[in-house]
Amino acid sequence: MPTPLTVVGIGNAIVDVISHAEDAFITQHKLNKGTMTLIDSDQARALYSKMGPGIEMSGGSAANTIAGLATLGGQCGFIGKVCDDELGDVFRHDITAVGVKYATPPLNEDPPTARCLIVVTPDAQRTMHTYLGASVELGPDDIDADIIGGAQITYLEGYLWDRPKAKEAFRTAATIARESGRKVALTLSDVFCVERHRDSFRELIDGHVDILFGNEDEMRALYQTETLEDAFSAVRGECGIVAITRSERGSLIMEGPTLYEVPAAPVDRIVDTTGAGDLYAAGFLHGLTRGKHLAECGRLGSLAAAEVLTHYGARPECDLNEWIAARSA
Questions:
Q1: What distance in Å separates the CA atoms of residue 285 and residue 299, rounded to the nearest whole number?
Q2: Are residues 64 and 315 in contact, defined by beta-carbon separation less than 8 angstroms?
Q3: Parallel/antiparallel/unpaired status of strands 183-187 and 211-215
Q4: What are the average pLDDT values for consecutive 10-residue runs of the chain, which has 329 residues?
Q5: Cα–Cα distance between 11 and 96 in angstroms, integer?
Q6: Which residues of 203-224 are buried (b: 16+ CB within 10 A; e: fewer)?
Q7: Comparing C-alpha atoms, which of 92, 91, 168 is closest to residue 136?
């Protein structure tokens, strides 16, 4: 029996390619600013050829959250599919280097490892175009029942919900977690993702999810409401804890009839918003797995998110515990 983990994440195993551009680039190439768009391999090659100089680093929403949790000291695992290729080696190295248990066997042939092409504009908004490649080949056979059954929380990434095999993997993991008396968390990931899968997301939340992460637009899209308050009314009773990020206005956390408002952590200059929501979830789950009050979980989430706003890339560049301690004195 493996050593029980704090949190195990299931999501897309992706390598990010990040480049800067003016808003004119977004307009010229008819990109949907500030969102994530799925593309095929030909579109990925075409867009990559038009982007300026970039940097490559491991990414993927749930993987970023798990890497942040590991940086904070959590015993974490990740389940996600790569190919046995150069980018797959990069992903495996980066996530295991921060102490995450990662044992998902790679594909031995095409499709290649997933990559996300990210264009960052001067306002720090990121426009993402993702070729999912090998990541969507994840299936129920990749779910380790011992790892899921032993983890305090299984964290599911909404972006992975596009393929039937991945849905089956999620449901398998969620069932194992619930039958083992463990918690299941879900991040909604993106408005377009929510709109594609609204009904099945709501079915999953009502039957399996204990902790829900999202932002205001995602929540309103999920419940088709004009206001966040109406969305909260709709989800109340379906999910125990809901944490909603609101950019510079901080976050709202709901548990039953109680609502906590948590301010955003101050940042001198926002460089890149990539991964802010992922690291908010990392800080929040770090607090939750240590029995902290929900308002304190939100504060830790805000502080962790603030760190990645100060640099390019979606994973911490410093010791998050030191970062948080310095801002908690």
A1: 11
A2: yes
A3: parallel
A4: 82 90 94 88 90 86 95 95 93 94 93 91 88 92 94 94 88 94 94 90 91 95 93 90 94 95 92 88 97 97 94 84 87
A5: 16
A6: ebbeebbbbbbbbbbbbbbbbe
A7: 168
Q: Which two tokens stand for residue 190?
A: 């993106």
User: Tokens 């906590």 sit at which residue?
Assistant: 260
> Could you tell me the residue ranges of all domains in the chain?
7-326
- Determine the pLDDT at residue 103: 93
- With tokens 């879900």, the residue in question is 186
Looking at 3.30.590.10, 3.50.50.60, 3.40.1050.10, 3.40.1190.20, the CATH number of the domain 7-326 comes to 3.40.1190.20
Output phi, psi for 23, to 5 deg: -60, -25
CA distance 207 to 225: 21
Q: CB atoms < 10 A from the CB of 267, how many?
A: 15
State the sign of the Cα–Cα–Cα–Cα dihedral 140, 146, 147, 150.
positive
Can you tell me whether residue 185 is helix, strand or coil? strand
Sign of CA dihedral 168, 169, 174, 177: positive
What is the per-residue pLDDT for 291? 96
Q: Please report the pLDDT score of residue 297 as a whole number.
A: 98
Per the structure block, which two tokens stand in for 135?
A: 């990541």
pLDDT at position 117, please? Answer: 93
